[in-house]
Amino acid sequence: MSSTTPTLHRATVAVVGGGQAGLSASWFLVRDGVDHVVLETGTAGHEWADTRWDNFTLVTPNWHCRLPGYEYDGPDPDGFMTRDEVVAWLSGYAPTFGPPLREHTRVTALTERDGGGFRLEATGPDGPEVWEADHVVVATGGYHVPIVPSWAPALNASITQLHSADYKSPGQLPAGEVLVVGSGQSGAQIAEDLHLAGRRVHLALGDAPRVARFHRGRDSMTWLAEMGLYDTGVAQYPGGLAAREKTNHYVTGRDGGRDIDLRQFAAEGMRLYGLLDSGAGTQLSFLPSLRQALDSADEVYRSICRDIDRHIDAQGIDAPPATPYVPVWEPAEDPTSLDLAAAGISTVVWAIGYRPDYRWVGAGVFDGSGRPTHTRGVTSLPGLYFLGLPWLHTWGSGRYLGIAADAEHVAGAITGRTGATIESAADLARRRSPGSGARLADVALAG
Hints:
By secondary structure, this protein is of the alpha/beta class. The chain has helices spanning 20-31, 46-50, 83-91, 185-196, 220-226, 262-267, 290-315, 340-343, 400-415, 425-431, and strands at 7-16, 36-39, 66-67, 70-71, 101-102, 106-112, 118-124, 127-138, 145-146, 160-163, 177-181, 201-204, 214-215, 218-219, 271-273, 276-280, 283-286, 337-339, 345-350, 354-355, 361-362, 384-386. Helix 1 (20-31) crosses helix 9 (400-415) and helix 5 crosses helix 10.
């Protein structure tokens, strides 16, 4: 047979993507005896090793790490696994249930078949393949193409530019000062990584909020889980589906976990700016939004603390008193320009996110921005599902704490099996804190 002749395969369900979302879907399909295949471009979970920097740590406590039939059971449930520890933990998942996983198989096209079902074109280890399936679960996540400004090529060629997905360590960068653009989770943590390594850092802030690492004796993420925020459907949040566009709060799990306080970094020598607006050559311009960005992030920080306080009071929980946050630095000015050469900046790290790329999916289930339209992963096209997206259904979606529940829902839509078996994040948190209960109505939705 010619190597260019596709090998034809058939499965009842094809799961595209072998990360934590795709493997979670497979766990339920294996449990229910459903014929299926998991098609993975690289190796299972490779994104954790390939797109995280050397000193990466989780920003949610280790006890949040759970997949169907598999939970973190290490010695430090309230700690934060490093990148390598996450890779090792995730690599232990597939052997526990034996998913029908085909690695090094890239799906390049998905189309509807006449009479129902789908056709997937792929390139596997031995050449081209075609898969026919009645159902397809797209579990490739929502972060596909790194975003850089359209004018980035206009910067002087002497300036090294890289995206946060390609950042590994301070030693990878040429000598000189570094501009990090973006203050979401990746940008703030990369700025921290460079700052702790002794590099002079310049940070252009966006509108990302922040959160306290610990408040009144417990990790804030543990409080919020107990309060029910990780289980609340996106439609119940103020603004509804618009919550999907929110930037995650910046915080760090490094060295046992702590706040990321950009004001403290500034007091220690980091240069802060507002939103980066444009640039050419070595000249950059910023909006005068620095003070507003810092104040807004701090107000979210305080509002979450107040929500936790109300929860503690409502439940009669014995907790240490609160320690109010007091700003340690205020900007003397709101800089609107920067000469990269004059400042000695050799590198720009873009940490302004990703855009989805589903051009290979030939189905009319996308909105004007290229994002899939769905209700908890179930699209309007019978047999087509999405899994592992941020805010697929809850704040926990796309994270280890919420993937299992979403996967069970999508698998149930395929099999017709109803009834949840996955413990809610709130119940899991309460079980870790005996005697503490909560009702979501007792607290405001933070963020």
